[in-house]
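Weekly modeling sync, notes
Attendees: S.R. (lead), two postdocs, one rotation student

Agenda item 3: backlog of single-chain predictions. S.R. asked that every request posted to the team notebook include the full sequence so nobody has to chase files. The rotation student volunteered to paste the first one in as an example of the format we agreed on. Action items at the bottom.

Example entry:
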Amino acid sequence: MNCERRHIDDLVSAVCYGHASPDQLAELAELLRTDDAALDEYLRQVDMHALLGGETELVLARHRAQAESSAIAKHRKGY
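Predicted structure, as returned to the notebook:
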C-alpha cells in the first residue's frame, strides 16, 4: 500500500470511528472534492464499515457522499 493510500485509509477510519479532528475532516473533504480515486476509496470503506457494523449513521453518510459525488461529477462535466 502506498503512502497516499495509507493516509486516506487513516482519514477515513478516523471519520468512521468518530475520532477525526477538524483538520482531518477538512483534509478529507478536500481530497474527496479533488481526487476521484480518494472518493472511490472513501465510498468503499464507508460501505464496508456500515455493513460490518450495521451502523445507520454510516449508511446515511455513504448516501450523502454518493449524492455529493454525483453533483461533483456533473459539475466537472459542465452540466
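Discussion: group reviewed the output briefly. The first helix runs from residue 3 to 16.
Action items: rotation student to repeat for the remaining queue; S.R. to check formatting next week.
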